[in-house]
Amino acid sequence: MTKQPIVNAQGVSKSFSGVFVLRNVDFNVYPGEVHALIGENGAGKSTLVKIISGVHSPTEGRLLLNGEPMRFKNPHSARSAGIALIHQEPLTFQDLNVAENLFLGHTRGKGNPFINWNDLYQQTDALLETLDVRMRGKDPVRDMTIADQQMIEIACALSQNAKVIIMDEPTAALSHGEVQTLFRMIRRLKEQGKAIIFIGHRLEEIMEISDRVTVLRDGEFAGECVTRDVVQDDLVRLMVGRTFKELIVKQSVPIGEVLLETRGLTYPGRYSGVSIRVRSGEIVGMAGLVGAGRSEVASAIFGAQPALSGDIFIDGEKAVIKNPMDAMKKGVAMVSEDRARTGLMTAFSIRFNMTFAVLRNIVAKLGFIRTKREDEMVRQYADYLSVRMRDPEQAVKELSGGNQQKVVIAKWLLTESKVLILDEPTRGIDVGAKVEVYKLINELARQGKAILMISSELPEILQLADRVYVMCEGHVTAELTHDELDSERIMTAASTVKNRSVPL
Question: Which end of the chain has the least Cβ crowding within 10 Å, N or C?
Answer without folding.
Answer: N
